[in-house]
Specification:
Helices cover about 40% and strands about 15% of the residues. With about 325 residues, it is α/β, with parallel strands linked by helices. Strand 2, helix 2 and strand 3 form a beta-alpha-beta unit. Helix 1 runs parallel beside helix 2 and helix 9 packs across helix 11. The protein binds nicotinamide-adenine-dinucleotide and uridine-5'-diphosphate-4-deoxy-4-fluoro-alpha-D-galactose.
């Protein structure tokens, strides 16, 4: 039995589908701070398999201990946390509380219950400004915002834990830019308020919820001047977690990138989305967004080595097509 914290969220819900499809039993713990219960009903609809849901907060150690015990959990996949870079600059204490103290409580609950296998959602943001590209896992770690620092602190906490007790098994997965949706169009990304990230914004323009996209920066040192990122299909990312579960027992503690190794510019993504949706995406070239880097993409060899040959398989066209299916079938998200 696997405890999935934050399993109702964007990446968590897709990972629940892949876990259930791979024959795992799961229990989801979520406080629904940034998600809807409907996502989990949709997971049931896709997989036609039952699973339990606990409404609870990772900062509540008693709830965590009870859940681990009642369901006989043997591993944890830990997605729960706050993830908006700009919010983290405005409200750093909320981020330190949720992401660091929350994870600390989770690890203490796991230790109490003797559950010592965990996969943690880290981020490419731990690398900070690139000293070289692609980012290998040995690139210096120097996050430039509070959100990224919370991820780095948790990574260090996990490494210290394994150093103190080698019976822990820890997989740290550093995600690049997850986009897309399950091919059914039943689950996908449903951000609250104005989306900060590119794909949800583009999709909302395509579906008529917003007039135009602001392209943040057109004078970067990239082929067309707009920012380049390593977009990875969320289903590939989810399958990376299933692969990581198989690996953690042999590996002690490992950190790997989950990306495709390829970069696409903002304007390339806009074009691919126009083709996938048949809609035009009006945009305006605007000044750079503070804190953005020109390019960011992953070295992928270490993930392939540690995750039993796992590689991201879906291309940018498939990502846009699946993202559009989700957005067009659910124009206002889950509960709109
Ligand atoms: P999300 O917000 O959709 O999912 C996070 C889930 O955790 C939500 O369902 C939310 O309600 C829940 N949650 C938050 N705080 C909680 C708490 N204290 N107790 C219980 N549940 C809580 O985000 P996502 O995009 O699915 O991201 C999942 C994880 O991956 C996060 O840790 C995020 O930092 C990390 N990550 C995301 C991206 C990305 O671009 N989406 C990139 C790198 C890393
Ligand atoms: N962009 C726009 N207009 C928008 C939104 C984004 O032009 O409305 C551009 C950005 O300037 C950037 C690219 O699209 O060049 C991607 O931006 P996102 O906000 O989608 O993604 P980021 O790479 O900035 O950040 C994301 C997550 C972080 C995570 C990071 C890891 O939001 O949490 O990926 O690489 F840390």
């Amino acid at each position: 039995m696997i405890l999935v914290t934050g399993g109702a969220g964007y990446i968590g819900s897709h990972t629940c589908v892949e876990l259930l499809n791979a024959g795992h039993e799961i229990v989801v713990l979520d406080n629904f701070a940034n998600s809807s219960r409907t996502s989990l009903e949709r997971v049931r609809q896709i997989c036609r398999k039952p699973f339990a849901v606990v409404e609870g907060d990772i900062r509540d150690q008693a709830v965590l201990e009870k859940t681990l015990k009642d369901f006989g959990c043997t591993a944890v996949i830990h997605f729960a946390g706050l993830k908006a870079v700009l919010d983290s600059v405005k409200s750093p204490l909320d981020y330190y509380d949720n992401n660091i103290i929350g994870t600390h409580r989770l690890l203490r609950a796991m230790r109490t219950r003797g559950v010592k296998r965990i996969i943690f959602s880290s981020s490419a943001t731990v690398y900070g400004d690139p000293k070289f590209l692609p980012y290998t896992e040995d690139h210096p770690l120097n996050p430039v915002n509070p959100y990224g620092r919370t991820k780095l602190v948790v990574e260090e906490m996990l490494r210290d834990l394994v150093a103190s007790d080698s019976t822990w098994s820890v997989g740290i997965l550093r995600y690049f830019n997850p986009i897309g949706a399950h091919e059914s169009g039943l689950i996908g990304e449903d951000p609250k308020g104005v989306p900060n990230n590119l794909l949800p914004f583009v999709a909302q323009v395509a579906v008529g919820r917003r007039d135009r996209l602001n392209v943040w920066g057109s004078d970067y040192d990239t082929p067309d001047g707009t920012g380049v990122r390593d977009y990875i299909h969320v289903v590939d990312l989810a399958q990376g977690h299933v692969a990581a579960l198989k690996t953690i027992d042999q590996a002690g503690c490992f950190a790997v990138n989950l990306g495709t190794g390829r970069g696409n510019s903002v304007l390339e993504v806009v074009k691919a989305f126009e083709q996938a949706s048949g809609k035009s995406i009006p945009y305006e070239l605007r000044p750079r967004r503070s804190g953005d880097v020109a390019s960011c993409y992953a070295a992928t060899d270490r993930a392939a080595k540690y995750l039993g040959g796992w590689r991201a398989a879906r291309d940018i066209e498939t990502m846009c097509r699946d993202h559009w299916r989700w957005q067009s079938q659910n124009p206002k998200g889950y509960d709109g």
